[in-house]
Amino acid sequence: MTQSKARIKVTSRSFSRHPVLKQELLDIFPNSVFNTDGPPTGLPNIVEFLHDADGMILGLEEMNLQILQQLNNLKIIAKYGVGLDNLDVEAAKELGIEIGWTGGVNKRSASEQALGFMLGLSRNLFFSSFPLK
Question: Residue 132 and residue 118: Cα distance in Å, rounded?
Answer without folding.
Answer: 22
